[in-house]
Write a sequence for this structure.
């Protein structure tokens, strides 16, 4: 079920009515959340509901087992069991065909015939998100950072909560699970914040992202390139993926807020970053924190005897894993490697966060420009359809010929980028992502009315899925 669909609007309206009736009855409320979330997920393909349930049931059971023993060896075995099952499910559905085909290609270059049997498995939507969410719960219980929950229904609600089920944010149990274990009050400020986030998120998806998409496709689905076309197409894709993914996150946060729940901020003006470390503090924050806490820091501790080399190796391995998390393709691996190496270089140049702040405005401006060049070349790696296309587009950056259609391309790009840029300048200067809510009532109503009108005008009958549904 897509947020940008008529069926979701009907689903959410019905859910709101039922939720309001049972809002003060904890058990009934959480049963309703689980039932609605499974309906929301099963609307895409009911067969994969079993995966969601099995993943939840196993990790709930492992959490209870961990809470019942203090012996180190059994606790490690329970943890390994949980991680092995989670990664096995993820690996089978997401990576089996990719690794089989890659092995065949390598052996073929060595003139060793190998014809693997690929399975053509459909990727279950959102599997990367809910798998990481249940894994983090088990690891946190193992580390004794949170207690294991005794309520299976509460745990199912935490894992399957439909606003953030299929594309995040990847919530931690320490933040979201307690919200299902107590009463939730719904205040007027919550409703105002939630409705604004839903409206702004839908505008970013329906009006902006879905109109950047054909601009990016015009370049990336072509066969001949030049420097200006590659740059423009990559700019369009950079805006597309940001508006698409942050738009989803805004709608998710807004939907949860209307229900009285709070889920984490997943984006914080990432294109205002002045270095690559700053970018990852702002982009897909829930994933950044996940890989920091559960991959990078453990690796850094294990390899600390190698000092900087150990840290560099941990960064590269961590972001290679991040690249693979995004998809089973070599361009995602290259994208992860690109960012891992970029963060390593940044650690050499700015070994401490204080060094980042002790710079002049002109240096920060140059740093911002260099960071955006780095990030957007990364988007080229991310969006390209093949390694051959990456090579062709990279080589084309030295060709400054400009096709006649680039003028209309630039006009369209600027027209759709302007609302986003103006809003984010306002949010940055106000240091408040909810700056529009500080407007007088008449001005806020006018702004929201204009956004709603634009959404209605650009609403497509053939709904475009969110990009991160494929991850």
């Amino acid at each position: 079920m897509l947020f940008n669909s008529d069926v979701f609007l009907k689903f959410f309206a019905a859910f709101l009515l039922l939720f309001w009736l049972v809002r003060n009855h904890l058990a009934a409320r959480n049963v309703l959340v689980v039932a609605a979330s499974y309906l929301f997920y099963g609307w895409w393909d009911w067969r994969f509901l079993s995966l969601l349930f099995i993943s939840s049931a196993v990790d709930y059971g492992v959490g209870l087992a961990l809470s019942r023993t203090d012996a180190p060896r059994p606790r490690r075995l329970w943890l390994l069991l949980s991680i092995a099952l989670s990664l096995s499910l993820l690996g089978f559905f997401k990576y089996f065909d990719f690794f089989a085909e890659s092995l065949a290609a390598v052996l073929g270059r060595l003139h060793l015939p190998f014809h693997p049997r690929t399975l053509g498995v459909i990727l279950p939507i959102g599997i990367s998100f809910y798998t990481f969410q249940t894994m983090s719960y088990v690891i946190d219980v193992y580390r004794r950072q949170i207690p294991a929950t005794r309520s299976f229904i509460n745990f199912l609600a935490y894992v399957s909560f439909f606003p953030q089920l299929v594309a995040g944010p990847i919530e931690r149990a320490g933040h979201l699970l307690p919200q299902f274990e107590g009463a939730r009050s719904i205040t007027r400020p919550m409703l105002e914040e939630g409705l604004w986030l839903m409206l702004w998120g839908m505008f970013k998806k329906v009006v902006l992202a879905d109109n950047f998409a054909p601009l990016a496709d015009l370049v990336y689905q072509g066969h001949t390139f030049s420097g200006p076309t590659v740059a423009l197409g990559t700019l369009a894709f950079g805006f597309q993926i940001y508006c698409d993914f942050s738009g989803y996150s805004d709608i998710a946060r807004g939907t949860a807020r209307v229900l009285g729940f709070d889920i984490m901020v997943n984006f914080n003006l990432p294109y205002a970053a002045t270095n690559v470390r700053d970018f990852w503090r702002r982009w897909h924050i829930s994933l950044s924190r996940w890989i920091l806490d559960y991959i990078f820091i453990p690796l850094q501790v294990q390899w600390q005897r190698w000092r900087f080399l150990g840290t560099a190796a941990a960064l590269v391995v961590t972001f290679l894993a991040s690249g693979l998390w995004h998809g089973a393709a070599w361009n995602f691996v290259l994208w992860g490697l690109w960012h891992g190496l970029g963060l390593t270089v940044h650690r050499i140049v700015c070994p401490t966060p204080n060094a980042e702040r002790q710079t002049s405005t002109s240096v920060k401006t140059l740093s911002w420009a260099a960071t955006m060049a780095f990030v957007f070349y990364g988007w080229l790696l991310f969006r390209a359809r093949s390694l051959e296309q990456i090579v062709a587009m990279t080589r084309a950056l030295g060709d400054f010929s400009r096709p006649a259609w680039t003028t209309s391309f630039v006009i369209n790009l600027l027209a759709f980028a302007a609302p986003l840029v103006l809003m984010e300048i306002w949010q940055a200067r106000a240091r408040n992502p909810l700056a529009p809510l500080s407007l007088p009532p008449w001005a806020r109503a006018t702004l929201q009315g204009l956004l709603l009108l634009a959404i209605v005008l650009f609403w497509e009958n053939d709904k475009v899925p969110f990009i991160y549904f494929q991850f």
The chain has 18 helices and no strands. Residues 6-184 form one domain. The chain has two domains: 6-184, 189-275+350-470.
